[in-house]
Amino acid sequence: MDTAQRTGGEAFLEALYEEHSAVLLAFVMSTMGGDLLAAEDIVQETMLRAWQHAGKVRAATAPRAWLFTVAHRLIIDRWRSRNARPREVADTVLWHMGVPDHAERSTTSVLVHAALTELNPKHRATLVEMYLRDRTATEVAAVLGIPIGTVKSRLHGALHALRVALGEKG
């Protein structure tokens, strides 16, 4: 290609850009939700294709329609390629996510269970009925078949013995 032809092609492309780029950019931006950088990329790629196919564009009766068609297809291609793979997520968000720590609760549960096994069976039964099965003193008395006063005294003794046992375990 000689200098005259190249200059003619460049002049044609410059004229095409001057005449249609503003309208093309507005169209692409509106289609892409106002993303200026992405819209400029699409317009640039459209103009590159116009330069690659300058003969077709010159022969076209409506070069603007050709530009809009190419831009529209590029937008579709970009949308398809972005939706073909999952979105990438920065791992900085993961640094702030809290994870519940059940270690202390598990340790406490093991210690309480061990302390309960060391209790007198009558005291243990009273604590289990009262706190683990969430029964009232009257219900515990009925279940264990003992007077309510005995439930209260056993409960007092059981809590004291449990405190001592847990104190020994740390």
Provide structural commentary.
This protein is mostly helical. The protein folds into two domains: 3-86, Rna Polymerase Sigma Factor, Chain: A (Orthogonal Bundle); 114-169, Orthogonal Bundle (Arc Repressor Mutant, subunit A). 79% of the residues lie in helices and 0% in strands. It has helices at residues 3-31, 36-52, 54-59, 63-83, 92-95, 103-118, 121-132, 137-144, 148-169. Helix 1 packs antiparallel against helix 2 (36-52) and helix 6 crosses helix 9 (148-169).
Keywords:
2 domains, Arc Repressor Mutant, subunit A, rod-shaped, single chain, 9 helices, 170 residues, mainly alpha, Rna Polymerase Sigma Factor, Chain: A, 79% helix
- Structural class of the secondary elements? mainly alpha
Q: Main beta sheet, described?
A: none
Determine Rg (CA atoms, Å): 40 Å
The CATH architecture of the largest domain comes to Orthogonal Bundle
Topology:
Layout: H1 3-31, H2 36-52, H3 54-59, H4 63-83, H5 92-95, H6 103-118, H7 121-132, H8 137-144, H9 148-169
The gist of it:
This protein folds into two domains: 3-86, Orthogonal Bundle (Rna Polymerase Sigma Factor, Chain: A); 114-169, Winged helix-like DNA-binding domain superfamily/Winged helix DNA-binding domain (Arc Repressor Mutant, subunit A, Orthogonal Bundle), CATH 1.10.10. The chain is rod-shaped.
